[in-house]
Design brief:
Layout lengths: L1 H53 L4 H14 L4 H13 L3 H14 L4 H13 L5 H14 L4 H14 L2 H12 L6 H13 L4
Length: 197
């Protein structure tokens, strides 16, 4: 009798386990579309806030909407771009840095965000080259074909007196006139200024 009872309990437990697994599978199948729908709704709401902000004449209210959009959908780059443009136009470079650092929390491989932070640091008076350099280096690490990142790294190394590193990066930027003619021209100018051309 005990043996039959143990076998019955084991069978019952297996059946409950199978039912639990089936229930879990059904629950996941119904929740995943709901979560995806919520993500789509968040993205749409963030997009509508950005659209509303760019059509406003009250810049302070527009900035509020753009920051809200970054909270609702932190991966929507447009909200960061408009915030960056707003703060840059007012020479609030510390705010530009803050905007793109927030984007990097959610999009850590955004080359343009690293470049924008570097540019913000270089826009201070005097430029904060030592703060900018790691951001340009990260952009270059992510995209070693970026003539602009190579140019900026080369310029900073030239300012710091590291001629070998400056030449390495400036020569790379100067050689890429087909893809980035402006960066190539500027690199050639800096190379000339340091007597390397």
């Amino acid at each position: 009798m005990p043996r039959f009872h143990v076998a019955g309990v084991a069978n019952s437990m297996r059946i409950r386990t199978k039912l639990s697994q089936i229930s879990l599978a059904i629950l996941l199948a119904t929740c995943v579309p709901a979560i995806a729908g919520a993500d789509d709704a968040s993205a749409a709401k963030a997009r509508s806030l950005v659209d509303a902000a760019i059509n406003m004449t009250d810049s302070q209210q527009a900035v509020k909407l753009l920051w809200q959009a970054t909270d609702i959908d932190p991966t929507l780059e447009d909200s960061y771009i408009y915030l960056g443009l707003f703060y840059n136009s007012r020479s609030q470079f510390d705010q530009v840095v803050a905007v793109y650092k927030k984007l990097l929390k959610y999009e850590p491989n955004s080359v343009s965000a690293y470049l924008d932070i570097g540019e913000a640091y270089m826009s201070f008076t005097p430029p904060k080259a030592s703060d900018a350099l790691p951001y340009y280096q990260k952009a270059y690490q992510l995209d070693s074909t970026s003539s602009f990142a190579a140019l900026r790294i080369g310029e900073i190394y030239a300012q710091l007196g590291n001629r070998d590193q400056a030449l390495h990066y400036l020569n790379q930027a100067a050689a890429d006139s087909a893809k980035s003619p402006a960066a190539a021209a500027e690199a050639r100018k800096v190379l000339g200024d340091i007597g390397a051309m």
